[in-house]
Amino acid sequence: MKVRVLITLKNGVLDPQGKAIEGALHGLGFEGAENVRQGKLIELDIKDASSAAEAEEKAKAMCDKLLANPVMESYLIEVMEAA
């Protein structure tokens, strides 16, 4: 199964990179861009999952143990078609 994990900083956690992006956008004339937050996208194949639910459970375990910092970050898992 192909899985996408979107990891972002939790609300209330300072995002200096998001602020820098927002400032750069304003400098380029995009004044309407506000509250910019950045994150990371991780795509992976989980070969030993027999169902979408199992792939999601394995991806959640990966996030909790390595991919995301649960104190500062939240994540969203999307399971896609079989790889």
Automatic annotation (TrEMBL):
Keyword Ligase present in the record's keywords: the answer is yes
The record's SUPFAM superfamilies line, in alphabetical order, gives: PurS-like (SSF82697)
Q: What is its EC number?
A: 6.3.5.3
The record's subcellular locations are:
Cytoplasm
Top-level EC class? ligase
> What does the record give as the reaction this protein catalyses?
N(2)-formyl-N(1)-(5-phospho-beta-D-ribosyl)glycinamide + L-glutamine + ATP + H2O = 2-formamido-N(1)-(5-O-phospho-beta-D-ribosyl)acetamidine + L-glutamate + ADP + phosphate + H(+)
Task: Return the protein name.
Answer: Phosphoribosylformylglycinamidine synthase subunit PurS
The UniProt family comment states: Belongs to the PurS family.
Q: Which UniProt keywords apply?
A: ATP-binding, Cytoplasm, Ligase, Nucleotide-binding, Purine biosynthesis
Give the record's pathway. Purine metabolism; IMP biosynthesis via de novo pathway; 5-amino-1-(5-phospho-D-ribosyl)imidazole from N(2)-formyl-N(1)-(5-phospho-D-ribosyl)glycinamide: step 1/2
Its quaternary organisation is: Part of the FGAM synthase complex composed of 1 PurL, 1 PurQ and 2 PurS subunits.
Cited function = Part of the phosphoribosylformylglycinamidine synthase complex involved in the purines biosynthetic pathway. Catalyzes the ATP-dependent conversion of formylglycinamide ribonucleotide (FGAR) and glutamine to yield formylglycinamidine ribonucleotide (FGAM) and glutamate. The FGAM synthase complex is composed of three subunits. PurQ produces an ammonia molecule by converting glutamine to glutamate. PurL transfers the ammonia molecule to FGAR to form FGAM in an ATP-dependent manner.
- Name one molecular function that GO assigns to this entry: phosphoribosylformylglycinamidine synthase activity
Organism in which the protein naturally occurs: Parvularcula lutaonensis
